[in-house]
Write a structure and sequence with these properties.
Distance between the termini: 11 Å
Largest sheet: 5 strands, antiparallel
Pfam families: Phage_min_tail (PF05939)
Protein name: Phage minor tail protein
Organism: Vibrio aerogenes CECT 7868
InterPro entries: Phage_lambda_TipM
Helix content: 10-25%
Number of strands: 7
Length: 113
């Protein structure tokens, strides 16, 4: 059973990135035909950050992401309110003064079953 990402809201300045994977064939004289590459050709990712986390909050996020290891999808709900499966292959933890921490991560939409 898939797990749900911990209930820690990312910073407001976190944003989405969308790209489409397409196949393009040029026929000459400027003519070109384009089509989607596969049935799930839209790649959606969010660049997220959490600032001023306590050590406990940091441990909660890092433990969750380590457990999933960039392989196992998890449920997360972005700002549009639609819960979907996501993968996090890369994240960074930065210590700050007074035992606070910042975390940045990239969540990529997963089409896994």
């Amino acid at each position: 059973m898939r797990e749900t990402f911990p209930d820690l809201c990312p910073d407001y300045n976190s944003g989405a990135s969308i790209s489409h994977d397409v196949v393009s064939v040029s026929f000459g004289d400027g003519y070109e035909q384009r089509m989607p590459k596969g049935i799930n050709n839209t790649q959606l990712s969010y660049s997220l950050s959490w600032s001023g986390l306590t050590q406990s909050e940091r441990d909660t996020l890092v433990d969750f992401l380590m457990k999933h290891g960039g392989v196992t999808p998890f449920y997360w709900t972005p700002w549009d309110g639609q819960t979907q499966l996501w993968i996090c292959e890369k994240y960074a933890v930065s210590p700050k003064p007074a035992n606070y921490y910042d975390i940045s991560a990239t969540f990529t939409k997963s089409y896994s079953l």
